Fold this protein.
Amino acid sequence: MTSTMEHRRGWWRRNRWGLVALPLALVLALAAGSSRLHEYWWKRGFHEQAPVSSGVATLTDEYDDGYLRYPIEARYSVASFRPADDVTLYGGDPLPSGVRAWRLSLAVEADPDVALSGCTVALVDTAGNRHGATDSGLDVDAPRLASCVPESTPGPRTTYGSTAPPAVPDGEDPRPPTYRTDTVFVLPAEAVPAAVRLWYALPRYVELPVDASAD
Amino acid sequence: MRAPTVRRPQATAGVLVVLALVLGQWLHQQLPERADASRPFEEPVAVGGTASLRSGDVEVLSVDGAPSVARKNGPVLLSPGLFVAVEFTFTPRGESSSLRYGELRDNSGRVLPFFGSSGRSSIDCVGRLVDRPTRCLAVVEADPASLAGAGLAVAPSDIDERWDSMAVVDLGIDADDVTEWSARKQFLDLPQAGVMTRTEAP
């Protein structure tokens, strides 16, 4: 009897390190089989928020399509956010009832040599709904396309189909190191905007709070 | 006196690991890969009803048919069979989203998939504002003999409809409908898709 118990104790003693390592091995095995989680969930959602300090978000990202890579670095802050009740449809007709327009001005600070075209901007309301600038499909007489860069001096950009790094076309002025972009959003009237969200390639994104009480 | 302990050679552990791997591989090969494990979540709906999908709500407004159809500012399309036009609304939930996939399930059990907002069989359904219905249109060209009792399925993705929800519309077409539609001489004027049918809150 005694020898049997000693034998059992001996087995636990002999295998103690293996038993300690077993949970770790299990975690590693699950992690090794989690590539789909990374590809289909992590990379397709808002999971890496850019750090925000004193109302300024610093986005450090990278464009990488497998052929071309370049850095994306900029600092963003909300310059102003107001209801845009003066906005009409093209032709002067008022917006239909049940919707409301909001005007966002973003302040951007970035090295003029960094390519910044191609972002997406949206508003997030207090219910967690996301609203893009062109969602309504209404012919609003205002800048609806979220411009990530100044229209006349967009700075470096890529050439479609080329693997050449982004460059400013000949004869075009460089983008200023600081600038503002204005976008008008049309939201359901009952939606209360809570934040602006900007991203190039998920999962990294910028989120800054907006104050919808400044009516 | 201490009981003698039996120490297995370390090779035994390696053999057991290899055996476990072989067993796992064999099981993987033997177990059936069932397509229905990844089937979409079907939400049945009839004309006049509403199906609740993951990304929004589908309300089926009407079903009509004719040998020729015309979109607004578009050419008249003529068919040796029939075009069936299904008008519905899509109310996106959480964010703007679209329905890009359609399939006709005919009365012989055949499935005719289609996608894209142009062409002879098409689905045009861009959900606009959250909680506001947008008019959508699915048009499918089919053999008249296959239509009585046919259904239409619509889903968000045109490349992968697995695991997502899908509205399956009972079109309610009978033989009399097919006869009536086939006799039409005037083309069917298709409603314009992509506009909100209501901008007020529900």
About this structure: Chain A has three helices and ten strands. Chain A touches chain B at residues 3-4, 6-7, 10, 14, 96-99, 128-132, 135-137, 186-191 (CB under 8 Å). The first strand of chain A starts at residue 48 and ends at 49.
